[in-house]
Specification:
Layout lengths: L1 E10 L18 E14 L4 E7 L4 H15 L6 E2 L12 H5 L2 H9 L1 E2 L8 H18 L6 H18 L9 H7 L10
Parallel strand pairs: 4-5
Antiparallel strand pairs: 1-2, 2-3
Length: 188
């Protein structure tokens, strides 16, 4: 899981009318309409992802994204392993701020949060997916949260239908060579 802030922008001035054979001519000036947040939930082995748009990136918003993950996306799972960065809102205790204590305990019991290295490659998979989302459909002016949600869902449906996976190129053999100082030495 990872999160991404996204500015909502509109044209500061109207673009010039299109002429045959000419690209769209618009001014670089933007009018800012606020910021939204995207939570990306990515299951790399299944090639499935889900995007949830929120107004902010608070502890409560994160807790709602986790509830959606547990109750809507994986309701039959006993335990869901979630790899995430070490931002303050991304903590199991955030569930306590979003709901009653009994419900918060039920939610926390459904998740396992493994400790990851500061520069762990597991988290990079979610970042790779976020970059693909931005390059595919968010690298333009998005005026409102409804448009952001619609664009994100269209991207998710296309990527999930194709079951796009992250192409990890760092193999075990490469790791044994590059990181040989981390592997135990066996003396015969």
């Amino acid at each position: 899981m990872d999160a991404l802030p996204q500015q909502r922008l509109v044209n500061g001035r109207e673009p010039l009318p299109r002429e045959p054979g000419c690209p769209l001519r618009e001014d670089y000036e933007d009018e800012r309409k606020g910021v939204s947040n995207l939570f990306l939930l990515f299951a790399p082995l299944a090639g499935k992802r889900h995007v949830q748009v929120s107004e902010r990136r608070t502890k409560v918003d994160w807790a709602h994204a986790m509830r959606h993950l547990a109750d809507a996306l994986y309701p039959a799972a006993d335990v869901i392993v979630v790899v995430l960065d070490k931002l303050t809102p991304h903590r199991p205790a955030s569930c306590s701020e979003a709901c009653e204590p009994a419900e918060a305990q039920r939610r926390r019991a459904r998740f396992a949060f493994p400790s990851t290295p500061k520069h762990g490659s597991w988290l990079h998979m979610a970042e790779i997916e976020l970059r693909a989302l931005v390059r595919s459909c968010l690298n333009r002016r998005i005026p409102d949260q409804a448009t952001l949600h619609r664009e994100g869902q269209a991207w998710v449906e296309e990527r999930n239908q194709k079951a796009v996976r992250v192409a990890w190129r760092f193999t075990t053999a490469n790791a044994r060579m590059k990181l040989k100082h981390l592997y135990p030495k066996i003396h015969a």
